[in-house]
């Protein structure tokens, strides 16, 4: 093969897309918004590390990306565990030939209760999941972000309208998701000047996943001590809202997981190269 032909051939094989050649860790990407983000990132040329506590779903998402021409590595485990966080970073760096470009801190769930009935366990778990775990991950990833190799680096932290506006019954979650904002801005200020790292939060409104489905559908997660934590919104609460459920959303509908994930891709992409330290509201216009 002539030099010119082999040059063209290598260009054809080179990953293409908004995230071509970048290595991304997406936590909680076994289902819901994170899984959609993993698929979209892979379509845009990223090598995706699928990280989730649900081993089977984690593997299924990675397999489906690999079998459709993308590149993914499933690393199952509990983001609340320090040794898992360390091994996740190590495996991601090995997969990325020594580089990690993007972290999406997305893993999470709600464990609701009114203030006077909220237990210490509910409080501690939700703060640990949405604040301490992302901190552990970002700190462990520091050697891969505090670099000057001319390649982009960015961190996207998933927040919620509950963190921006508060939400009755979600004191733990509202505090944790509000914390994500300060966490994000501090990363942007510490790692932006010398290393060009961007950090942004995305606050979702009502997105259709098991977190917002009817509680009676039976979805649950297993808490740190093996407790069963039911997910979703009680049908009674949904019925009480009736036709007015989306009345305060200018687009008059909830968002899909794909729409939510698309906003993560947009923020992580070079199209947002001059956006850092922001909380982007993905809510259909709710709470303007
Ligand atoms: N769905 C919404 O309306 C909405 C609104 C605002 C914010 N959010 C946030 O978006 C993020 C994604 O939520 P979703 O709606 O896609 O939920 P989801 O339940 O569909 O997906 C969350 C994923 O996180 C994983 N996960 C949970 N705990 C984990 C742990 N300890 N270690 C590793 N993985 C873990 C779950 O297994 C699951 O696959 C969450 O941070 C959530 O708080 C969602």
UniProtKB/TrEMBL annotation:
SMART domains hit by this protein: PKS_KR
Similarity comment text for this entry: Belongs to the short-chain dehydrogenases/reductases (SDR) family.
Reactions performed catalytically: a (3R)-hydroxyacyl-[ACP] + NADP(+) = a 3-oxoacyl-[ACP] + NADPH + H(+)
InterPro entries: KR_dom, NAD(P)-bd_dom_sf, SDR, SDR_fam
Keywords, comma-separated and alphabetical: NADP, Oxidoreductase
An annotated Gene Ontology molecular function: 3-oxoacyl-[acyl-carrier-protein] reductase (NADPH) activity
Superkingdom of the organism of origin: Eukaryota
Family matches, as Pfam families: adh_short
EC numbers for this chain: 1.1.1.100
Listed name of the protein: 3-oxoacyl-[acyl-carrier-protein] reductase
Principal EC category: oxidoreductase
Gene3D superfamilies cross-referenced by the UniProt entry: NAD(P)-binding Rossmann-like Domain (3.40.50.720)
Occurrences of domain Ketoreductase (ranges): 22-194
